[in-house]
Amino acid sequence: MTLTQGPGGLRAWSVTVGTKGQIVIPKEAREMFGIEPGATLLLLGDPVRGIAIPPRDAVAALHTQIFGGEGAEPDGNA
């Protein structure tokens, strides 16, 4: 594992993909983002921009902004 630190506390880690397509999230990253064993992560992908693993709370907040909150009734408009 390699760690690169950038301005403003930005960090980048390099990891190796195993034979089963698995990666290990470095300990410092798990601690920084509060990732515990058994946690469910959201993996987003874009063929051009790459892969992102945003904090689950950030995605939940975005969902609430777009769809109006938990349990909101759909209005049938696309």
Q: Can you describe this structure in just a few lines?
A:
Strands 1-2 form a two-stranded antiparallel sheet. A two-stranded antiparallel sheet has the order 3-4. Helices cover 24% and strands 18% of the residues.
Return residue spans where pLDDT drops below 50 for at least 5 consecutive residues. Answer: none
- Please count the helical segments: 2
- Major β-sheet profile: 2 strands, antiparallel
Task: Give the proportion of residues in helices.
Answer: 10-25%
Could you explain how this protein is built, in words?
The protein has 78 residues and is of the alpha+beta class. A hairpin with a 5-residue loop joins strand 1 and strand 2. The chain has helices at residues 27-33, 56-67; strands at residues 2-5, 11-14, 44-46, 50-52. It has 2 domains: 1-34, no CATH class; 40-70, no CATH class. The radius of gyration is 16 Å and the shape is globular.
What tags apply to this protein structure?
2 domains, 4 strands, two-stranded antiparallel sheet, alpha+beta, 78 residues, single chain, globular
List the helices and strands and how they pair.
Elements (H helix, E strand, L loop, with lengths): L1 E4 L5 E4 L12 H7 L10 E3 L3 E3 L3 H12 L11
Antiparallel strand pairs: 1-2, 3-4
